[in-house]
Specification:
Length: 320
């Protein structure tokens, strides 16, 4: 089995940590920021999130084509990871700059639409090449699986840490300092942007593309679109992925409402994040063994069933 330096493995994991750290600030807190701080309607926010998820499904294949046709002395992937990180960080700060403090009426909604769409597009700039880079680490499937599992573990840690400390830090930077809740969100966004940049710079600096993935010829965008159009099985997978992403994003965003307005203990949201991280980490570590014993299909179905049962449990708690 090919050896990959632990420096590279950890650096790639740190990149995954930063990527999901910033992503979960959007997934967990943007919805409640829009409704409870900016003051726009939940229907507007839900519709916006749905439309942007559909846009993501369109832009992701295009970004994949762009990466595949990139040729630089730094490789295909790292330039896009760095460029996307820098731009996305800037847009994150604009996203949490409360438009209700300097705009009125419909212009507030327009600001939310434009900044959130820009954030999603610029996140795609670095997210697609980040995960697409894994095959460039090694030709050995075991090495790729190892780095994939490690990076997913780091990503889970980054996402759940945001859920765990997010509300506490926002309060400390805002209300607890005599400022507004809106100020707390903005200041935290600046900190998250800095952490994100540090993580991705470490990643880009220390990892290398050991396997040069060469195209036999330049692939035209029209060929990619025709391939998608003619491949009905791939279209089904894309459609199911869109539904899954919409469900996960809405569920993640609604969790904080659940603890704030149904359970009436907003502080429990942090405990929920810790438990989520522990269980998620166990699942990631156990996945290879379970997949070998039961097959990936069985594990996938079982995981989906357990998720549904968990959501039903939250529903009945809310009903009481």
């Amino acid at each position: 089995m090919e050896k990959l330096l632990w420096k590279e493995k950890l650096s790639y994991g740190i990149g995954a940590y930063g990527k999901d750290f910033i992503y979960n600030m959007i997934a967990a807190f943007l919805m409640i920021f829009y409704t409870d701080v900016v003051g726009v309607s939940l229907i507007f926010v839900s519709t916006l999130f749905l439309v942007v998820r559909i846009v993501d499904a369109i832009t992701n294949p295009f970004m994949g084509w762009l990466v595949d046709n990139t040729k630089t002395k730094w490789g295909k992937f790292r330039p896009w990871i760095l460029i996307g990180t820098i731009i996305n960080s800037f847009v994150l700060i604009l996203l949490y700059l409360n438009p209700a403090t300097f705009l009125q009426g419909i212009l507030i909604n327009v600001w939310c639409i434009v900044t959130y769409l820009l954030w999603s597009l610029t996140y795609t700039l670095m997210d697609v090449p980040f995960w697409a880079m894994i095959p460039a680490f090694s030709n050995d499937a075991k090495v790729r699986n190892e780095i994939s599992m490690l990076s997913r573990l780091f990503a889970t840690f980054g996402g759940q840490m945001m859920s765990t400390i997010g509300l506490l830090v926002i309060a400390c930077l805002g209300v607890n300092m005599g400022a507004s809740e809106s100020d707390g969100y903005l200041r935290f966004a600046v900190i998250v942007a800095i952490v994100f940049n540090i993580c991705e710079i470490i990643c880009v600096r220390n990892v290398s593309e050991h396997v040069v993935i060469k195209n036999k010829r330049d692939i035209k965008l029209s060929e990619v679109l025709n391939f998608l159009k003619e491949n009905d099985q791939l279209l089904i997978i894309i459609f199911m992925t869109i539904l899954q992403q919409i469900a996960v994003f809405l569920w993640t965003g609604m969790n904080i409402y659940f603890f704030k307005y149904v359970v009436c203990h907003e502080e429990w949201f942090s405990i929920f994040g810790i438990v989520n991280f522990i269980v998620g980490s166990i699942g990631l570590i156990a996945f290879p063994s379970l997949a070998n014993k039961f097959s990936r299909k069985v594990v996938y179905i079982l995981s989906a069933v357990l998720l549904v049962l968990g959501l039903l449990g939250m529903f009945f708690v809310g009903d009481d």
